[in-house]
Design brief:
It contains two helices and two strands, in the order αββα. By secondary structure, the chain is mainly alpha-helical.
């Protein structure tokens, strides 16, 4: 026969081991999530710093030419639209 105290202690230790393994699994998953978020955060900070250091792009103002009393905008998208409509 086995000693009931040893059996009880073995069951308790097995339960503790099971709970510790669960905690380890959750801690590993959390660590992986935090590592991924840290990499994203570093990339975003780097992009923000580059944006702060760069010169702002000039404000877009289409060049206009007066032709026959009307102004024609020389926007690229308008030219492309006109070309598509003419085909």
């Amino acid at each position: 026969m086995t000693d009931p105290a040893k059996t009880n202690a073995s069951q308790i230790l097995e339960g503790v081991r099971f709970r510790l393994q669960g905690m380890l699994d959750r801690a590993t998953a959390l660590r992986e999530k935090l590592d991924g978020e840290a990499a994203l955060l570093q990339s975003m900070e780097r992009l923000a710093e580059q944006a702060r250091q760069s010169n702002p792009p000039p404000a877009f103002e289409p060049q206009r030419q007066q032709e026959d009393g009307a102004f024609l905008a020389s926007d690229g998208w308008q030219i492309a639209l006109i070309n598509e409509e003419g085909q």
